[in-house]
Every structure is written in structure tokens, then in C-alpha cells.
Amino acid sequence: MTKNTTPRLEEITSKNLDAALGIRVRPDQEFAVAPVVKSLAEAYVHAGSAWPRLIMDGDRAVGFLMAFLDIDWHEDGGSAVRSGLWRLNIAAGEQGKGYGRFAVESVAARIRARGGKECYVTWHPGENGPEDFYLGLGFRRNGEVVEGETVGVLDLS
């Protein structure tokens, strides 16, 4: 993170849309996360449950996150309603500076403020994937695999 600044989240608007669309992960990580443009399209379609935000440090866009809030996980009428981190894209040149941790903590705080006790995430397994990052933040595998992705959960209580 930049000295003397604190990262913050910004709602995606017409004024920062180009900055959001410019966020690119490293090429070797592209298999693990959809580009921001796809996330914003999904946020539009799932407006009631998607929470997209640009991660800023000073006047620099350093990343993008999108949370999902209170979704019907199994799409069966509500047997499992969950919230968590849907997407996390930290710009290639900004990784390793604490922005990813900030993003996860921000989503966890948002879920906690809504009364949630758990934060979910899924990740593609494999080299250069985010598994070690999420496990290092306290997520634990819950034994589920969804569309080839490992499901992790972080206890917020």
C-alpha cells in the first residue's frame, strides 16, 4: 500500500468505469478469475445480490472486488443462503501489497454488518491460483466443489 494513504472501496460509476475495466491480473492468473467486464455484467444481472467495488489507493485503482450477499446457494428455495467474496482482481503490479487482504476484510465487515456469521469464497485449484492466499486468511475448505472450484468458508463470529 502507498505510504500515507489508506485503501478504500468506491462504488463503480461512470467516472471510474474505465479504471475498473483496466484492472488486469497477471497473465498466469487469468485462468482463476473472470475479467472485471464479466463481473460488472453479472452484477447488472444480479443487482439484488451483487456488490461490486473498485479498490482505490489514493487516486490509483489497484483492484476490484465483488461480493455476493444473501444468495440462494443451491437455488432450491433457500436451504442455504450465503454471502461471500465472488470476485477479487488485484492489478498485476499491485499484488503482494495488502490490497487483497483489505478486500477480504472489507467484504467480511460488510457481511458482519448485515448479521452474517460466515463468508464464503470459491477458487480454482492449481499453480498460481489463490488457494494459499485464502487459506492464509483463515478460510477453510468445507468439502464442497462447485463447477470445479473449491469452496472455502471463513468464520466471522
What's the layout of helices and strands?
Elements: E1 8-11, H1 17-21, H2 36-45, E2 50-57, E3 60-72, E4 81-90, H3 99-113, E5 118-123, H4 131-136, E6 140-146, E7 149-155
Parallel strand pairs: 4-5
Antiparallel strand pairs: 1-2, 2-3, 3-4, 5-7, 6-7
Word description of this protein:
The longest helix has 15 residues, at 99-113. A seven-stranded mixed beta sheet has the order 1-2-3-4-5-7-6, sandwiched between helices. It has helices at 17-21, 36-45, 99-113, 131-136; strands spanning 8-11, 50-57, 60-72, 81-90, 118-123, 140-146, 149-155. With 157 residues, the chain is α+β, with helices and mostly antiparallel strands.
**Number of beta strands:** 7
H-E order: EHHEEEHEHEE
Report the sheet with the most strands, covering strand number, pairing sense and barrel closure: 7 strands, mixed
Overall mean confidence score, pLDDT: 95
The dominant shape is globular
Helical fraction: 10-25%
Low-confidence stretches: none
User: Biggest sheet: strands side by side, in what order?
Assistant: 1-2-3-4-5-7-6
Terminal-residue CA separation? 28 Å
β-strand amount:
35-45%
Q: Radius of gyration, rounded?
A: 15 Å
**Structural class of the secondary structure composition?**
alpha+beta
Enumerate how many helices there are, as a single number: 4
